[in-house]
Amino acid sequence: MSVYDYEVKTIRGESKRLTDYEGHVMLIVNTATKCGFAPQFKGLEELHRSYKDKGLAVLGFPSNQFANQEPGDNDEIAQACELNHGVTFPLFGKIDVNGANADPLFQHLTQEAPGILGSKSIKWNFTKFLVDRDGRVVKRFGPKDTPASIEPHVRKLLEY
């Protein structure tokens, strides 16, 4: 299976198949607007603006599973991301990324790119998954990995 086999809900509640991103490099991130790592929204937006025309898709998936740092509903999240962080990259509906109710996409991502010591669970907000143009998960980055530190990996995958 690849990420293209999944369907997700946009932040506005519409169904979206990830096949819409076929041929793109994707950076899939679990986000939270009240997290100490929320300043990374700026760096993610910079990656989005710099590379969207070259084939990068930054995709944000809000989650409230870590210290209640995303308590709002989808409308509140969208507004906070836009007004407070200038986000224009695609945001999706709030989901669980761990546990019995984890979104199937995140089950796939964590299976394909385990964390430290082979851990499948996501430890905190702003865990990032880099996906190549063929829909394969190629690397997992932790919350402390900044978008700027990930940029060389993105550039490499964008090369033809």
TrEMBL record:
Active-site residues annotated for this sequence: C35
InterPro entries found in the cross-reference section: Glutathione_peroxidase, GPX_AS, GPX_CS, Thioredoxin-like_sf, Thioredoxin_domain
Keyword Oxidoreductase in record: yes
Gene Ontology MF term list: peroxidase activity
Superkingdom of the organism of origin: Bacteria
Keywords: Oxidoreductase, Peroxidase
Keyword Isomerase: no
GO biological process assignments: cellular response to oxidative stress
Record domain Thioredoxin: where: 1-159
Family assignment from sequence similarity: Belongs to the glutathione peroxidase family.
Protein's recorded name: Glutathione peroxidase
Source organism: Paenibacillus sabuli
The organism's taxonomic lineage, starting at the top: Bacteria, Bacillati, Bacillota, Bacilli, Bacillales
